[in-house]
Structure formats: structure tokens, C-alpha cells
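User: I'll paste a sequence; please echo it back and then give the predicted structure.

Assistant: Echoing your sequence first, then the prediction.
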Amino acid sequence: MVITTRATIGKLGVQSPWPHFDEEINLYLKLAGNLMDKLSVSSAELMEIVLRSPNVNQIAIGKQLGIKQNSVSGRWSRSYAQDLLDVEQMFRKKLTMLTR
């Protein structure tokens, strides 16, 4: 099984042996990309930490960023962090279902 990614003018996509999978995941990626395009620098920093360490808590994030937990909470909401993590999790779930 080979899944390739394709990037064109800043857009990310997936091309796999499963066209229905590609269509659905590419829609998710398009919507997630629209959210990420609107992130502030501080929200993007938060997302980088979360994506690199998915189990990190807000207190630890705050220490890394030099801010308080309540500020992390605000950034979390403004960055659509949970929505972006849900897209990433759905990709993994769908891929697992296809490769069984």
C-alpha cells in the first residue's frame, strides 16, 4: 500500500489506492487548511506543541510558551485545536479501517 501526499500552491492532499478515501480525506484537509490559514502565530505555536506531543497538558504547554494555563486555554479555543486534532484522528481511523 502506498499513500502519497501532493502539495500544490500550499495545499495538501492525499492520493491513495482508494478514491473514496482520497475524496473524503482531501475534503477534511481542505477545511483544516482553511482553519490553519487563519491561525495567529501564537496559535500556530500552540498547535506545533500539541501535534508534536499529543498527550501534553495545558500547564506543560504554558511552561513551554512562557504563559499561564488560562492563556493556553484561550489560545486552544482560538486555534480550533480540538477540531484539527479530530481531523488528524479521523484520518488515522479511516486509514486503519482500509488497511485491515
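The chain has two domains: 1-39+84-100, 40-79. The radius of gyration is 15 Å.
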